[in-house]
Design a protein that fits this description.
Elements (H helix, E strand, L loop, with lengths): L1 E5 L4 H12 L4 E5 L6 H7 L7 E4 L2 E4 L1 H11 L10 H36 L6 H23 L11 H15 L9 H11 L5 H4 L18
Parallel strand pairs: 1-2
Antiparallel strand pairs: 1-3, 3-4
Length: 221
């Protein structure tokens, strides 16, 4: 059986959890706090980062490498797209959320408010949080534009792009940082994602010392 080492509120881990479930694959989840389990994690991934996927004797590190591995080794359900054009758009948007969105939003909100607290490495930087909140609105407007004439972000079918976007937004939503009321199209798209069976385990995640807002696991917001 596949074994996924992950941190529940890590967006990259959540992307892979969604992909595994959308592909209908059985897997064992091993929860890891990378900053506490350094020695054990180092043996799997010297970068000390999750997610890490084990498939028998093969260990795959980094969420993009894991996604590629799953698409190549488990091709029955394709979440990149049927055409070259669609696959290119999917990869572009995955990079958008895993790189640009992460740099401009996730790192300025999630890392400041949650990871610093868990690692006990200081208080959140208010300037970073203000910048992240402002940048989030720009990205939600772009997501709304994408969804305005498509059934999903990369086209008419669910793809890895939707999973990457939802993974990042879901950890921010856990913190209560997403102004859904100002972006109805983004909210509609996220509602579609929340209603999928693959998403429900994410909505059940909880940190002992930090509860999400009431709407977090409400499928109707």
């Amino acid at each position: 059986m596949l074994r996924l080492h992950h941190f529940p509120l890590c967006p990259y881990s959540r992307k892979i959890r969604l992909l595994l479930r959308e592909k209908g694959l059985r897997f064992e989840e091993v929860e890891v706090e990378p900053w506490k389990q350094v020695d054990a994690l180092f043996e799997l991934n010297p970068a000390l980062e999750v997610p890490v996927l084990q498939d028998e004797d093969l260990t795959v590190c980094d969420s993009r490498a894991i996604a590629d591995f799953l698409e190549e080794s488990k091709p029955e359900h394709n979440f990149l797209g049927a055409s070259l054009e669609r696959r290119n758009e999917t990869r572009r948007l995955v990079a958008w959320f895993d790189d640009k969105f992460a740099r401009e939003v996730t790192d300025l909100l999630w890392r400041e408010k949650l990871i610093k607290r868990l690692k006990r490495i200081g208080t959140p930087n208010s300037d970073n949080m203000r910048a992240g909140a402002a940048n989030l609105k720009v990205h939600l407007a772009y997501l709304s534009e994408l969804f305005s004439d498509r059934r999903w972000l990369a086209g008419d079918d669910l793809t890895l792009a939707d999973m990457a976007a939802a993974a990042h937004l879901s950890v921010l939503d856990y913190l209560g940082d997403v102004p859904w009321q100002n972006f109805p199209l983004a909210k509609e798209w996220y509602g579609k994602m929340k209603s999928r069976p693959s998403f429900r385990p994410l909505l059940a995640d909880r940190l002992p010392a930090m509860k999400p807002p009431l709407h977090y696991d409400d499928l109707d917001f």
